[in-house]
Prior knowledge:
mainly alpha; single chain; about 0% strand; 8 helices; DNA polymerase, domain 1
Amino acid sequence: MADMNTKDALLDQRGLSKLRWRCRRGLLENDLLIEKFFLRYEATLTVSQAKGLNDLMNLADNDLLDLLLRRKEPSQLSDAIAKASATTPDALEILNLLRPVATGPGPATVPGNTKERTDHEAS
Length: 123
């Protein structure tokens, strides 16, 4: 078991580079949200937080997006392996950091999509 000093150590540049590569997704929305997360937190990411982000990367793209946009909670995932990955303490910590990046103070939005829907478009 890693000691607390190792888990709390900042992620080095090589580890950060590997993590960024691991976080590349097939769904553009996820890529945009994860990139925004890295812009905000990459300088302070710890080894344990990197593990949590890796755990979340085990999820299917649609499950990850549902979690980020608060459409689902980790306990609501139907796949047992996905649920196990998303409910680790490290993954839950990262999810709590990712969600504000994804949803911001207002309604859930994807970064870069600033166009608001008008009433006639909703019909």
